Amino acid sequence: MLEWIYMPEAWISLMTLTALEIVLGIDNIIFIAILCGKLPNEQRDRARVIGLGLAMITRILLLLSLFWIMKLTTPLFSVVGQEISGRDIVLIAGGLFLIAKSTLELHSHAVGENEEQSMASRAGAGFMMII
Prior knowledge:
The structure is a single chain. Strands 1-2 form a two-stranded antiparallel sheet. A hairpin with a 2-residue loop joins β1 and β2 (82-85). By secondary structure, it is mostly helical. The longest helix is centred in the first third of the chain and has 29 residues, at 8-36. It is built from five helices and two strands. The radius of gyration is 20 Å and the shape is extended. The chain has one domain.
């Protein structure tokens, strides 16, 4: 049951996941601080606490769902002799989403659009919009 403790791969994975979580946490803090700066002074602290709390809860739920997805190894069907499982479908869909999103971002950057700035200027600095 505790044999993973003696596996270097497990420790490397744990350190990698920890480093990613630290980087994403710092990114969330910076992003939320920038957005909260647009709010009135009396709402900033509350927005920071709620925003960081929601970010933490979301990250925990995503990690739990990732743990569940990695267990989906039972083959569902076969394509050209290759068995496809639920995990494979999720990974393929995620990869296709990243390709589509990065292509759209590159296109909008090449055309000169900046969606984040236009959304922020249109939305104003409403508390719920910032959260």
